[in-house]
Fold this sequence. Notes:
Strand 1 (7-10), helix 1 (20-35) and strand 2 (39-42) form a beta-alpha-beta unit. The protein has 3 domains: 89-243, HUPs (Rossmann fold, 3-Layer(aba) Sandwich); 267-384, Glutamyl-trna Synthetase, Domain 2 (Glutamyl-tRNA Synthetase, domain 2), CATH 1.10.1160; 402-500, Orthogonal Bundle (Arc Repressor Mutant, subunit A). It has 503 residues and is mostly helical. It has a 3-stranded antiparallel beta sheet. Helices cover 48% and strands 8% of the residues. The mean pLDDT is 95.
Amino acid sequence: xxxxxxxxxxxxxxxxxxxxxxxxxxxxxxxxxxxxxxxxxxxxxxxxxxxxxxxxxxxxxxxxxxxxxxxxxxxxxxxxxxxxxxxxxxxxxxxxxxxxxxxxxxxxxxxxxxxxxxxxxxxxxxxxxxxxxxxxxxxxxxxxxxxxxxxxxxxxxxxxxxxxxxxxxxxxxxxxxxxxxxxxxxxxxxxxxxxxxxxxxxxxxxxxxxxxxxxxxxxxxxxxxxxxxxxxxxxxxxxxxxxxxxxxxxxxxxxxxxxxxxxxxxxxxxxxxxxxxxxxxxxxxxxxxxxxxxxxxxxxxxxxxxxxxxxxxxxxxxxxxxxxxxxxxxxxxxxxxxxxxxxxxxxxxxxxxxxxxxxxxxxxxxxxxxxxxxxxxxxxxxxxxxxxxxxxxxxxxxxxxxxxxxxxxxxxxxxxxxxxxxxxxxxxxxxxxxxxxxxxxxxxxxxxxxxxxxxxxxxxxxxxxxxxxxxxxxxxxxxxxxxxxxxxxxxxxxxxxxxxxxx
Length: 503
Ligand code: GLU
């Protein structure tokens, strides 16, 4: 038999914010397809109109594009096997369902809601699993014709075999065996003419020539129904690969209550696409040799689906923070600065397009702060001291945390202290003698000279400098600060604080 070109897909339903699980499954589908020289496709499964939310589809496109999880075919791109939105393929599904009826593989079911409810109650009372009892399976052709002619409402159900087994040959899990008599006669076409997930999913995977269905393990229970559908149609089924579910730290299935799950949230928090993709790549997968940091391309190049581990990967924000920090440090500084600008703007530290000089200053801030930050938002949150030239010393109030009290009291006392005043004046005179631009090395040198000139311990010399330069008991390294804000702003800060505190 001719080798078929590998084609994988994700088939999200547009029911809200784009989910991290969608990106996770997309990454593995994309890696598998591209590693094998095939295509990765996006199909939107929007047949359940009750669950559809406006704008959600566009957010899926945008989130996948943000992460560079680019599909070759999709609703917004088109392709040979379109349309890629199920709501645009409606007519197809009814025809295929009827084709199965004609083949004797499916049947019209005219049972009313009322009958089905009573059936369920009876089954419950008897301690039986709920399921359709096959009532309409044995209707004669005359009965069916009469009901259809009378315009009775119907659904179409799949005729599941009463005996035997359906086996999923999962590439990662081996054989998963289901007894056919425990599988319900699935509804394929609903009374309103809409297809169910099962029918639309199988018809589309077939028509779109999908060779490998890589999806989350929560779909395992649906797969025997799909296998039976393929059989009923006489089609070759794709290979099934069920990925482990992402989990909260308590090992339950990842959920909004315990973890942010919206990709929009991760974007707003300032995670890099490289960080997210790398982190998702670590979920259930390992390159070995302690290689934890990689790019999307490296992931694809080294990808081997048979190495996926099934042990329920935990979606751990601490780990994500670490991975993202690594990528922020690897990223080209100019690019990272550009990506961080909107966060500076949002915090009110930057307005409008920065001049070249301002951009340069911001880059330096980013360069220093990315070392210790997990996200771009965190870079900005720790950057205030570089932007704000006007401040006062904090004062101890009832709300001050106990561990902060000592540091604040010390700030006030060093400004009254003679050594403190001398240190400030000496440092000021050294800065006055400088050019506007001060390098980090030079700033370090000036601080050291001040320390030696005063001849006291570092605490006594640097704390008063910190007080006038930042107004805070701890934080930014002073040499970085001076190098970034330059001569003029350093002097302005010192003079202003001297006036305020009578130094
Ligand atoms: N529409 C399903 C979803 O929302 C598709 C599942 C599958 O991949 O078959 O995830």
